Amino acid sequence: MPRTAQLSKTERAQRLIPIFQHYGYDGATLNKLASATELSKASLYHHYPKGKEDMARHALAYMGSLLQKHVLAPLSGPDPEQAIQNSLSGVLNYYNGDTPICLMNSLMLGNGKTLFGKAIRETVKVWAKLLSQNIAKTGIPVIEAQEISSQTIEAIQGSLILCRIHETDTHLHDCIQNARKNILG
Amino acid sequence: MPRTAQLSKTERAQRLIPIFQHYGYDGATLNKLASATELSKASLYHHYPKGKEDMARHALAYMGSLLQKHVLAPLSGPDPEQAIQNSLSGVLNYYNGDTPICLMNSLMLGNGKTLFGKAIRETVKVWAKLLSQNIAKTGIPVIEAQEISSQTIEAIQGSLILCRIHETDTHLHDCIQNARKNILG
DNA sequence: GTCTATATAGGGATAGAC
DNA sequence: GTCTATCCCTATATAGAC
Questions:
Q1: Which domain CATH number covers B176?
Q2: What does the pLDDT look like over B115-166, one tens digit per residue?
């Protein structure tokens, strides 16, 4: 355990994330990022030599690790129905604010899309594939399982949009409830 | 018909919109907006005295008029099932690119959210209310109709996110197909 | 590893000629 | 109604002291 820095790498990522979520890549200024981390702009460059791009990359990587932990890893369990159940619950832990926001979505505009669009696309593909495989394992035809998987992820993303618009978390919770019903009966 | 300007107000709005859609409010620079309209930055200020805020406001207003025409007006028809059918078809006309993008969604970050968040929220509320009223008129209990309406708009927004990520329009078309089935059987 | 100070570019916005 | 030229400010990034 390094005892040198005031904030650990993880803690810094946790401070950077809300800025990118609320302002997007182009709207996230170094002044905002410096305030959030309680560092000077120059100090930020010590930790993130390539500047804002590095900061966003680390923020995205940290959220990627949380997605892995809460949403994707559960989909590798032995029992498909339990796996889906756990993964859907994990979605609520992954998107966990009063008004939950998807960092990947916030980074899909302007320079953010140019820099991270490909990585985000691949992440979403992995999620959709793992979910569809589990749905198929419950006895649903593969083609149909793929459709349900895709619709589920779309519903989650859509609910997050409405959460952002109405500044609430109810749409996401309702969405997960519906997903449970639709997939698991 | 004024024959003075090279581009009409509507034509200018049509040029500004893609910039705000792809870059968001903060990412849409005056240089990009000037290029898109084939005007100098100074000329833009003649048409939009308050600058970028005015440009985004006009872009949003123009898309609002299209939403009214394609999606909302049909919901005032006499036959609720036909109204829903026409409105869902209208959604495909409203979001009409190779990779359809929602301007309101692109403006829900950073300064865009500060400036237009309230107006966007009200627009979505109107849409949800009109849709739910029509669903209720088909004989579905009001509470349930509200849920279906909300879920439909969420599904549309979610499908647009996936269209943006995968650079396609298929998710939106599939979404509208499913909405037809879900609501109209 | 942190900071102040600074360099350089680009952003939004305006003046004023045509 | 359009433009060039300009202004001021902020944004990103770097230099170099501590």
A1: 1.10.357.10
A2: 999 999 999 999 999 999 999 999 999 999 999 999 999 999 999 999 999 9
Q: Which of B56, B117, B66 minimizes the C-alpha distance to B96? A: B66
Cα–Cα distance between B105 and B111 in angstroms, integer?
13
Could you report the per-residue pLDDT of B57-116, keeping only the tens digit for each? 999 999 999 999 999 999 999 999 999 999 999 999 999 999 999 999 999 999 999 999
Q: Could you check: is the Cβ of residue A115 within 7 Å of any atom of nucleic acid strand D?
A: no
Does residue B54 form part of some domain?
Answer: yes
What does pTM read for this prediction?
0.97
B2 occurs within a structural domain: no
pLDDT exceeds cutoff 80 at A165: yes
Residue B110 and residue B136 in contact, taking contact as beta carbons nearer than 8 Å: no
Domain range for B34: 9-184
- Tell whether A24 is covered by a domain: yes
Our count of domains for chain A comes to: 1
Best residue in A109, A150, A166 for a mutation probing chain B (most B CBs within 10 Å): A109
Calculate ∠ Cα B176-B182-B185, nearest 5°. Answer: 110
Asked if A1 CB < 7 A from strand D, the reply is no
C1' of nucleotide D5: residue with nearest CA: B42
- A161/B111 Cβ within 8 A: no
Residue A2 lies in a domain: no
